[in-house]
Amino acid sequence: MSAEAVTEVWLDRIAAIDPSLRSFIHHAPEQVRALAAVAPKGPLAGVPFGIKDVIETADMPTGYGSSAYPGWQPCRDAPVVHLARQAGAVVMGKTVSTEFATAAPGATVNPFDAARTPGGSSSGTAAALGAGLILMGLGTQTSGSTIRPAAYCGVAAMKPSPKLIETFGVKALSQTLDVVGPMARDMRDLALLVSVCMRRPELAPDELVPEEKLPLKPMGLFLPVHDPVADFSPLERAASVLASVTTQAVPGWFEGLGAAQDEVFAWEASASLSTDRDLHWDKLLPETHAFMKRQQKGTFALWQAGIAARDHALADLDTLFGKADFLLTPSAPGEAPVGHARTGPATYNIRWTLLGCPTVTIPAGLGPAGMPVGVQLVARPGQDALLLRQAAAVEDVLRAAGIEARPQQMS
Amino acid sequence: MSAEAVTEVWLDRIAAIDPSLRSFIHHAPEQVRALAAVAPKGPLAGVPFGIKDVIETADMPTGYGSSAYPGWQPCRDAPVVHLARQAGAVVMGKTVSTEFATAAPGATVNPFDAARTPGGSSSGTAAALGAGLILMGLGTQTSGSTIRPAAYCGVAAMKPSPKLIETFGVKALSQTLDVVGPMARDMRDLALLVSVCMRRPELAPDELVPEEKLPLKPMGLFLPVHDPVADFSPLERAASVLASVTTQAVPGWFEGLGAAQDEVFAWEASASLSTDRDLHWDKLLPETHAFMKRQQKGTFALWQAGIAARDHALADLDTLFGKADFLLTPSAPGEAPVGHARTGPATYNIRWTLLGCPTVTIPAGLGPAGMPVGVQLVARPGQDALLLRQAAAVEDVLRAAGIEARPQQMS
User: Fold this and answer.
1) Does the structure show a pLDDT above 50 at B299?
2) What residue ranges of chain A have pLDDT lower than 70?
3) Residues in contact with B19: Cβ distance below 8 Å, sequence separation at least 6, in sequence order
4) A79 touches chain B (CB under 8 A)
5) Cα B372–chain centre separation
6) In this complex, is the C-beta atom of B293 within 8 Å of any C-beta atom belonging to chain A?
7) A41, B60, B358, B369: which has the fewest C-beta neighbours closer than 10 Å?
8) pLDDT averaged over chain A?
9) Does B76 contact A171 at a Cβ distance shorter than 8 Å?
10) Does B168 contact A171 at a Cβ distance shorter than 8 Å?
11) Exposure b/e, B185-203, CB count within 10 A at least 16 = b
């Protein structure tokens, strides 16, 4: 098939499915055709790609998930978008975000069940991937905004260590916590995308040893939080087929990192969103109002205490990881909840975001309600390359055992 | 005098002096009058204020010091600009920056000698302060772009610890290094501005004990680098009148932090500037081309080594600071150099920027050529409040000894 014909297949698919999925906030077929006609060759050549609406683009409006800046058109692509385009990606459009990547959901539904949330804040990229409308895309994460929606929609995603992917041109919430989150359909596609976003060709799957020889290194099974409503059966199923998984004890200080993350977020977001809050309050959604009121209760002293708790934990990482380089934990407390008023809890994500630990969510089959579930693999800060390799090995084992989320053919 | 009358005095001053100083890249008197008429009351009420052109403003074009984005008009103020305006500051205009805050100088001259550089990259804010066209303003620093021009222009400035002032809406160079640098005419004005930018009222001078009771704590005199052309006499003069200054030995690892800063900067800037470089190359200045070519030689491995060198140093801070909480060092190797092709070396700034140590430059009289000089006071990361207090005490002692840069009456 010619490149033009391939593009038409993707456009037809979006035209058929997105009216009910609502994963795109901006999608213009003529623009996509023009972009596909000139997309350069490269590791992502021709890959249909989605960009979360909080990430700036020079040729598509960027609304930050809000109606505060209608039709706003930035003057340049965020560098991470530019890197993907230079590698050949074809941007199909801007994907739905919660307002300013915080609490107020957009219109997107879950591709596996339209009655359920796709998760958020990177709702559109996750749903478009889960429905097979794109093959790769970008989200962002400050609490659990990349890992959780990816798990809910049956796709792969990474929250990298801070500083490894450029964040300029991304609407900021927290200088300490914000990262760009690459998202894809499986771990090998994800590694390829991450290699482009990080400018590290050695992370690409071609550079990995052949599939059957990927070594599976020891992992600690980590069930950290008292959470009587969580369903750990998908994690236990995955762990049961993975060799060398041993239960890792939870340090006493781990639980408190949740409040620490919340306070770091609150104090920084009350600055980063100050302009929007003070000048555009009447245009913002009620959930955003509630979010902003909460953030404004943050104080510098609580921020300092949160940073101190993080630094204390980082000095004790050996206790957290034990003898393993990786921890295996839930990506979310369960399957995507029914309803669209909320995007689900970030309980199993916020502490890793605070610590700067890279994490991935690996598709791990379906849960009791038939919805996709993921398992989250965590590594020490900066060990992003090791993590991607281990995650590919984990995915291989899960697939060999029949544990995978089948691509959804939404109609 | 009425607020309107005060505004006219400032406007007259700019009209008289800026045609030769060239510190503003955007200044529209009618706009200033309109802003002054509605500026809220607050700690900065009515303060004439300058914003470096790499910081986005909703009502004034933001060119990032470049001709790549002519007349570009962002949709909102950077949060740090919003905080200053909410505190009552009256923005007189956008001040000249080197292109993208890197190497290519703008048109600004030094207010003490038009044949000399004002320093950079925050050239316009420093020069406008030194000439008395504004009372406060904002710069940025990735290497030495706030401290050095402030010292060259005889004014006070701070490079804060990372994360304490929001950087969203500021053109990025390096996620690790970039900070917003508040600038003012003296240490008490500077503390007031920092208190607004950091949202920490306790840093304001009103909260300091009365001048005569500010305690002067021990400082280490720190002359770190082999630099045969540097002139340390201004620093020695300042140290001679300050009690409790003892020479602090330089750790063996300190020198190498310069190369480490350079490699961290190179790898991150080759991403942050990628869009500008790849799509607007022909519009950029020759010095920017040279800068970008240098940055593109950066590698991830060298970035990792630079971060490791920083972390090694941070683990050995007690050796660096000895028994003192503060180090006293040059702000720059000497007075502002003659000529406008370069903005002067950042030799004495880059290592503190890498370490995340907060620093201030304190006006310290005139040098041998009659140009202003500053001394740089450095504290441990996060000790910004302590640093501001000590700097005010140092400034008091220097002034009592007649060591100060007289305001320049440029004509």
Assistant:
1) yes
2) 207-213, 225, 406-411
3) none
4) yes
5) 15
6) no
7) A41
8) 95
9) no
10) yes
11) bbbbbbbbbbbbbbbbeeb
Per the annotation, the verdict on B213 as an active-site residue is no
Catalytic residues of A: 52, 121, 145
B52 is a catalytic site residue: yes
What are the domain boundaries of chain A? 3-207
Secondary structure letter of residue B14 according to DSSP:
H
- B interface test, pick of A164, A167, A168, A265 with most B CB neighbours within 10 Å: A168
Distance of CA B57 to the CA centre of its chain: 19
Handedness of CA B380, B386, B391, B394 (dihedral sign): negative
Confidence bin at B408 (pLDDT 50/70/90)? low
- Options 3.30.565.10, 3.30.1700.10, 1.10.730.10, 3.90.1300.10; which CATH number does A3-207 get? 3.90.1300.10
At A247 the three-state DSSP class reads: strand
Element (H, E) at A400: helix A384-400
Neighbours of B286 (CB within 10 A): 9
Structure tokens belonging to residue B237: 């003069």
What is the layout of strands, in order, in the sheet containing B24-26? Answer: B24-26, B90-95, B48-52, B136-141, B179-184, B156-159, B359-366, B372-379, B326-330, B219-221, B245-247
Q: Is B272 on the interface with A (CB under 8 A)?
A: yes
- Which of A83, A272, A304 is facing B79, going by the closest CB pair? A272
Which strands sit side by side in the sheet containing A219-221, from one edge to the other? A24-26, A90-95, A48-52, A136-141, A179-184, A156-159, A359-366, A372-379, A326-330, A219-221, A245-247
A312 CB near a chain B CB, below 8 Å?
Answer: no
Contact B75 A72 (CB under 8 A): yes
- Chain-chain contact of B300 with A198 (C-beta, under 8 angstroms): yes
Report the number of secondary-structure helices (H) and strands (E) in chain B.
14, 11
> How far is residue A26's CA from residue A63's CA, in Å, rounded to a whole number?
10
pTM of the model: 0.97
Q: What is the pLDDT of residue A411?
A: 45
The complex's ipTM? 0.96
